[in-house]
Fold this sequence. Notes:
The strands form 3 sheets. Strands 1-2 form a two-stranded parallel sheet. It has a two-stranded antiparallel ribbon with strand order 3-4. The protein has a two-stranded antiparallel sheet with strand order 5-6. By secondary structure, the protein is of the alpha+beta class. The two termini are 22 Å apart. Helix content is 45%, strand content 13%. It folds into 2 domains: 2-122, Glutaredoxin (3-Layer(aba) Sandwich), CATH 3.40.30; 129-192, no CATH class.
Amino acid sequence: MPGWQEVYAELKDHNFEIITVAQDTLGEEATAEWHDQAPLTYTTLIDSTHRVSSLYNLVNVPSGIWVDEEGRIVRINEGTYSKALHFGSTVVGSDDYRPAVRDWVLNGSSSRYVWSPQEVADRIRRRTSDEALAEPTFKLGVYFHRRGDEERARGYWAEAQRLFPDSWNFHRQDWHLTEGMGGPRFMEKREALGDEPYYAPLELEDAP
Length: 208
């Protein structure tokens, strides 16, 4: 988040806003440590029902949606790191995304990184019938978790993950609520992908 604060400070005077939406059933309890890492002057919201991820079938957090002045989506569903992050031999994110954001802010609809409406539609992943059923199943888990019924919540979350095993959002939420298991389970599943990409590769032709 500090990286995006730097981007916002640089570009906020060019009719540009950043809105981050944390996706976590625990709400502020889970997100406060991230928000407190550095003073943030852009808008930060909390989505405890995972509505945003569900609406656009986003891979996981962080994922980005670019919205222009007319309210039109011009890019969507990409891993949105402000820079490449190195964890031992593993590299997450890219140094190319931040310059692309800058190009869009400064050049608007003429930016070479803006997608057509058809390109945007093509990148919103269509769900299978099982994946569609997984959404309300996951939401039932959220409902019961909020009411303190952990056994039923876990049951619905397990079923949602069975129906939609590629949903990292579902996995992440379940793992996060299992003490000490979030990191190990994430890395186990990530390593199981092998050469298969986690996020779709960034399409940033001629990135600066």
